[in-house]
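Archive entry: two folds, one per protein. Generate the first.
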Amino acid sequence: MSINDAVFRLAQAPAPTMAERRERAFESAMAYGNAITSKITGTYSDAEARTWTIQEAEARMVLDGDDLPESALLPQLAADKGVTLLEYAEGVVAKADAFRAIVRAAVALRRGAEALLSEDITTPELLAEAVSTLRAQTHTAAVGLGLSL
């Protein structure tokens, strides 16, 4: 096939439907949201990330003055880092609280992205406006959480 034939076929390809455009916008917004959370989770191994809930529970126990079980992770993690158990627990809770705020922003983005699938968005112009609004809201939330995108 010649270049001219390829250009002709491309020119003859049907324009995407609004449903297809909305789906692409949704997928793009979801990828953007995943990029936000991966800025945090991407710096940790999967194994370590799976212990975050345990670490947070143990850290809150330390801050509440409760005894930790013998199998607790935090004492060894604090020792490995060269800080006191209390200092380590405070850091874990601060990071957990910050990550929770990031997750709330990601959930808001997902909900906004789902709105892009609405059949009420009937023109490319309305879709562009909805995407622009969602990006601005997401950017504002990310910057507010100290994330650069």
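Generate the second and append.
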Amino acid sequence: MCGLASNTKIKVKYKLYKLNIGGSMGEGENERKEVKPDICLIALDEALNVVYEKCGRERAIKEIAKLIGLNDEEVKQINPTVHCKEVLDKGLNENVCKSFRGIRSWVMCRAFQLIEEEELSFSGALKKAWSEARSKCIELGVPL
């Protein structure tokens, strides 16, 4: 049943895609060019939607990364949620405050956390995260 439903969705997406781009005009021409949609991309898109739905985003990314041969460090680089969890769990310390990349990483992760938890705007969350970082780093004896 699931395979049939997915196959039907792929066919529908294929037809919609063909309707959307298949009738585009050629450059300087009055006739329409037939553009065939890439059925592979449509199928992959549908498969990823199912994987995200069934496994959740975090697990889906991890499993897909394994399939294409990425190691844990490479997965962290493409998955900001995992990276940010680690950054925020470690917190601010002297080394992070002194590190150009470290402090910016902490500030961005904290800003995204504030956006989710306090529903702040991006700029508001960024300002608050920088303020928190400055205060904590000053306490640690490392003014920013």
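Annotation attached to the second fold: The two ends are 59 Å apart (CA to CA). DSSP finds eight helices and no strands in the chain.
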